[in-house]
């Protein structure tokens, strides 16, 4: 394999898998299946498996095993086995990414691929908002997804792109990344994704915990709060319309209840991965809600529970949901402990990783994707790319060569 190909194939994969996330085309299916299999093949060729058996590896292996057992006893066995294979391929791709990202240049190229995908998506959203196709909600709010047909997923990609653009700013100290952040933030607002905007706010909050609570910080926070209140009073109608608060969480609450009821009826192995869309309607028709609301949900389809923990419990059982929680807790503790141990000059980097983790975690209370969701690589890859960046960061941080500083 040529040195150039070896250097670029993973960033190219990440970029393409993101920007084609909602292509309804056979090309997308080839990209999402053949490219990962190629990466896994490269990973396995000539490898001597000497990696340590860490707690996350054990927990992930247990999670995969539970997915397999659940699939064998699922509502639709073949459908669940298909999603099991997707999850298996997903984690093998992440293992391959860790193996590939063995120097600083590859680390930077990976970050840049995510920033570039955010740039393409944000431009498409802004164009779509003014010149293309938009979604008009019942409350009158206008939302745009650009090249993504799902505006919430578009918002999530932009949230991640903002964090990674700031990470590039920390690494390179180039002001153009602030322009990217402003562009991404504008596009994020146009998506109207409340969960992703909340995730960004949580990430910013936890990142700024690195500061001591000085008078300057207090003044900035109080001033921001006052301006926010003033803006809300002046533009209350428009803000409420954009946030779609009149609708509340009623539709999501129904999906939560469906997931919880399924988990209660199938607590051990769930209904199997990917079967919520078939089983969910049987529960929906029994609920004492209006026919118009039932039909509205059925027209869209019950694709998820809009909560990663509820959906996991419904599809692979309470044990599977418990293992997922343990995976998240273990990774979160690793992030937090690194903050306590690193040199003060590196704390910005690790607080940003910690903030991103908390933002994704909060978002997963309202969306099912973002960590592990049936091997949906377009949405779930960021959480694990960030974990790989974290694991590899120690060896990059101790390097201080001229080659790296000039790259």
From TrEMBL:
Q: Which Pfam families match?
A: Wzy_C (PF04932)
Which Gene Ontology terms of cellular component type are present?
A: membrane
Q: Which residues form the O-antigen ligase-related domain?
A: 180-324
* GO terms, molecular function: ligase activity
Enumerate the PANTHER family for this protein: LIPOPOLYSACCHARIDE BIOSYNTHESIS PROTEIN PA4999-RELATED, TEICHURONIC ACID BIOSYNTHESIS PROTEIN TUAE
Membrane-crossing residue ranges in chain numbering: 7-23, 29-45, 57-75, 81-100, 107-127, 147-170, 177-205, 217-235, 255-274, 316-336, 348-366, 372-391
| The name this protein goes by in its record | O-antigen ligase
